[in-house]
Design a protein that fits this description.
With 794 residues, the protein is mainly beta. It contains four helices and 50 strands. The relative contact order is 0.13. Belongs to the TonB-dependent receptor family.
Length: 794
């Protein structure tokens, strides 16, 4: 507590600085009349929204700003976007701003002007997903998966060839990862998202976690003194059906802002898996069919209040509950060396699982003075719990179907609880020579897990102490950072930063009486430069060092059986991995973008699938087993082939050079990967759109794994009704059922393993979206200070 008091005390003198504000006003009109009820947005030099308002009936507007440099942005339907840089040193009147109408009539087809689907900004790629019809009625996770160069696979959000990415909302972190992050993103309607930013090398302000950089979701915003409600209902049909209902309410009145949402989903998803293991004695082939329960209920409440013109305080609460129970039917066939069936095992299992998390956030933001200095404080508490009870029985049968005996019968129970408390402060400090930002964070994490394994082969549960474990883990982290950026002239921009993170961890297995301690101090530098040669050509070069910490569950040395011949276990000695990321980007006329990158990885960790020939069992473990390079070149091309046909296309060539640093009985494989995607939007009328998307990833080799191809053809249709207050959409996703993981091959200890997994990516969706109230709403999302720790909760 003394550290916290000292931390706050050192920053309190900043509140004593004087504050000076100025008025910025003007009037907006088109060539005929004033434009009323139009949003005017003010952003700073980092592109962050810091203020805004709505024009009155006569087209006039007024905002209060501190001294500094800004951009005024006006983007309203039916008009070309307006943007102007300004410098505020006194009260400023922009005068009359004329917006140009931008509507083209083509007989019965009417095409309205819209932003390009892909835009290259100074330090990020912006994806305007509202142009893609397949996102209507969908959620934030499916929207991210349609962004260029981003794939969602095995519960991870990855930037192609770079690794796992962190996710933010309006520049503020989400404190979840893996399955929990995906469930949270599924609770956000894609209809409320304006665009998605892909930031490959974030500044030092953000935690260094995540080798793939950041995915920033920008939510739609609108007018003050207004309210809005959006209800979305959808139905997905695969082998089973899934119903989803989402409701989001926003209210913004004078100094008070509130947002609330509730999201519910119910139904089932079919998962099919195959695992072939080729032993000397003959192959073992497993086929598993799982019926997974998709029941989920989540909600959010956020309150913000302006204490004064320059200071606001707020509170946010998020809660998520899931019951991902599942039934699995598994058959394991054992063959001899002549590939003749000798016997088989029927494994039936049921998992009763409950997961939940809740997050509390208290924050304060204040603008300090006329130099536009801004200070923010955050206090966060996060709690995650997971409980499961898995019962399974495996029976042996002869090749003719005769029952032999019980192979294995057991009950596996697990409880896990993770909580985190964190405090952080951030300061934006513009100077005449450059813009500074700096801050600090402290985080305290505790994780307790209890795994109990009972052998039930006799009908009476017997505790198996060899597979029972209690594990406690604590992690404390202290971080400080500083970042500076400088616009040299109209052509050159520089930015550099440094983040220092000091970490102390302690893991203790009560059952094994084993303690593991790891303390480390690391530096994470970042660098960025941009050169605009002319209106058509912009070049940039950036570098950043990142860290990938193991999730808490991976550090627990417990064993969980997946089937009678397959189990997974954690590793308390698992260490973080590090990467140095370089990227060079060229943008031509905002329609063609070339990206060349190189990532150097040290102490890389991952999953190793080992087969035990004596017991014919698969062991899934995690080790720091590799180092190496990932490299590649990518092209994105935006084209309007006709006034009614907009197309976004990307082509990536990716490669790897992975080497093993651990003595494992395997040979690394490396090769080239090709990734191609094309997204096409056809405007069939003023309120009707058709979407046709296709993507393809070639077979590729990297490290331990040789993976087969994936592809997907998606077709969507959208119809606007009732003056766009209602939308109905229909989507057929992965028409040919080719987007699943196939032929994932690894060879360890001389045993070849081939894995396939199909998670019901082919489905048909019918969606209905209804909006009412004043649709021009201005709601702020809030960053959460313990993002890095919650990201690793499983």
């Amino acid at each position: 507590m003394k550290k916290v008091n000292l931390f706050i005390f050192l920053l309190l003198p900043l509140f004593c600085l004087a504050q000076t504000s100025f008025k910025l006003n003007g009037k907006i009109a088109d060539e005929k009349t004033a434009v009323a009820w139009t949003d005017v947005v003010i952003v700073n030099q980092d592109g962050k929204i810091i203020n805004g308002t709505t024009t009155k009936e006569d087209g006039t507007f007024e905002v209060i700003l501190n001294k500094g440099f800004y951009k005024v942005k006006i983007n309203t339907q039916g008009y070309a976007e307006f943007e102007e840089e300004i410098r505020i040193e006194k009260d400023t009147n922009l005068g009359l701003i004329i917006l140009k109408e931008n509507v083209t009539n083509l007989g019965e087809v009417v095409i309205q002007s819209k932003k390009s689907t892909i835009e290259q900004k100074t330090d990020r790629l912006v994806y305007n997903l509202e142009n893609n019809v397949t996102n209507v009625g969908g959620d934030a996770l499916s929207a991210i998966n349609t962004a260029p160069g981003v794939v969602v696979q095995n519960n991870a959000i990855n930037v192609l060839g770079k690794g796992t990415s962190r996710v933010m909302i309006d520049g503020r972190m989400i404190e979840l990862t893996g399955e929990e992050l995906n469930n949270f993103l599924k609770s956000i309607s894609a209809n409320d998202i304006k665009n998605i930013e892909i930031i490959s090398n974030p500044s030092s302000k953000y935690e260094a976690e995540g080798t793939g950089g950041l995915i920033n979701i920008i939510m739609k915003k609108g007018a003050r003194n207004s309210w809005k409600n959006t209800t979305t209902a959808s139905y997905d049909q695969n082998k089973y059906g899934i119903y989803a209902l989402r409701n989001n309410f926003f209210y913004n009145k004078n100094k008070f802002r509130v947002s609330a949402s509730i999201n519910a989903k119910t139904g089932y998803r079919n998962i099919e898996e195959g695992l072939d293991m080729y032993f000397v004695e003959g192959p073992s082939k497993m086929k598993a069919v799982t019926k997974l329960n998709e029941d989920n209920l989540s909600g959010k409440v956020a309150l913000d209040y302006d204490l004064s013109e320059n200071t606001s305080i707020g509170f946010q609460f998020l809660k998520d509950k899931s019951n991902p129970d599942f039934d699995s039917d598994i058959r394991i066939d054992q063959y001899n060396t002549q590939n003749q069936l000798e016997s088989y095992v029927i494994n039936e299992s049921f998992l009763d699982r409950k997961t939940g998390n809740q997050t509390y956030n208290l924050h304060l933001i204040t603008k300090l003075d006329s130099l536009n200095r801004k200070l923010s404080f955050d206090a966060d508490y996060f709690d995650f719990d997971s409980k499961f009870d898995r019962d399974f029985i495996a029976n042996n049968y002869a090749s003719d179907g005769t029952f032999v005996d019980i192979n294995q019968s057991a009950s596996n129970l697990s409880n896990q609880d993770i909580n985190n408390l964190s405090f952080k402060a951030d300061m934006e400090h513009p100077l005449k020579a450059l813009n500074l930002s700096y801050g600090a964070k402290m985080s305290f994490t505790k994780s307790n897990s209890d795994v109990v394994f009972f052998n039930t082969i006799t009908g009476t549960p017997v505790l198996d102490t060899n597979q029972t474990n209690q594990f406690k883990y604590t992690e404390n982290n202290q971080a400080v950072y500083i970042s500076a950026d400088k616009k040299i002239n109209e052509k050159w921009i520089f930015q550099a930063g440094l983040r220092l993170e000091n970490t102390q961890t302690n893991g203790f297995s009560k059952t094994l009486n084993q303690e593991t301690v790891n303390n480390y101090f690391k530096l994470f530098p970042t660098f960025y430069t941009s050169y605009q040669k002319n209106e058509n050509n912009t070049f940039s070069l950036n570098y950043g060092r990142r860290i990938k910490r193991p999730s808490f569950s991976l550090l627990n040395p417990f064993r969980v059986y997946i089937s009678s011949n397959s189990y997974s276990e954690g590793n308390p000695f698992l260490k973080p991995s590090f990467s140095d990321n370089f990227e060079f980007v060229h943008s031509y006329k905002k329609i063609l973008r070339t990206s060349i990158y190189l990532n150097s990885i040290t102490d890389g960790y991952g999953v190793i699938f080992t087969a035990d020939p004596e017991t014919l069992t698969q062991v899934i473990s995690r080790e720091n087993y590799f180092k190496g390079l990932n490299y590649g070149i990518g092209e994105t091309y935006s084209a309007n082939f006709a006034a009614w046909w907009q197309s976004e296309n990307s082509l990536y060539f990716l490669g790897s050079n992975i080497k093993f640093i651990k003595d494992i009985n395997a040979t690394p494989v490396n090769g080239l990967e090709v990734d191609f995607s094309t997204n096409n939007t056809f405007s069939l009328g003023k309120s009707t759109k058709l979407q046709v998307d296709f993507n393809y990833t070639s077979p590729y080799k990297s490290g331990l794994y040789d993976t087969g191809y994936t592809s997907s053809l998606n077709i969507g249709f959208k119809q606007d009704l009732l003056n766009k207050t209602m939308q109905i959409a229909f989507l057929v996703n992965d028409i040919f059922n080719t987007s699943y993981l196939k032929n994932d091959v690894s060879i360890v200890n001389g045993v070849k393993q081939v894995y396939n997994q199909n998670e019901s990516n082919r489905f048909a969706r019918l969606s209905l979206v209804y909006n009412f109230g004043n649709k021009k709403i201005n709601v702020s999302e809030r960053t959460l200070g313990n993002q890095d720790e919650k990201n690793r909760a499983r």
